[in-house]
Amino acid sequence: MTEITGSIIDQSHLQGLIQRIAGLGLSLRSITPLETENAEAAAHNHRPNPPAGVGDTNPGANAKGL
Questions:
Q1: What does the alpha-carbon distance between residue 31 and residue 44 come to, in Å, rounded to a whole number?
Q2: Which residues make Cβ contacts (< 8 Å) with residue 33, sequence separation at least 6?
Q3: Which residues contact 5 (CB under 8 A, 6 or more apart)?
Q4: By CB neighbour count within 10 A (0-12 exposed, 13-18 middle, 19+ buried), where does 35 fall?
Q5: What pTM does this model have?
Q6: pLDDT for 34-64, tens place per residue?
Q7: HEC-encoded secondary structure of 17-33
Q8: What whole-number distance in Å separates Cα of residue 57 and Cα of residue 5?
Q9: CA–CA separation, 11 vs 2, rounded Å?
């Protein structure tokens, strides 16, 4: 039995790791979430980039920046 630990930043990251394990022909027996001191801070620090136009510094600018 091998135990692997690490941070998972979001659902797609978890799915990717599960697919990699399956791609190696390995059997996954269990996944156990562990709470850490930094878990909440890490979750808040990883945010996807907003869509284009969201959070722009000049909301009145058009697509050409005019």
A1: 22
A2: none
A3: 34
A4: exposed
A5: 0.49
A6: 887 665 555 556 555 555 555 555 555 555 5
A7: HHHHHHHCCCCCCCCCC
A8: 40
A9: 23
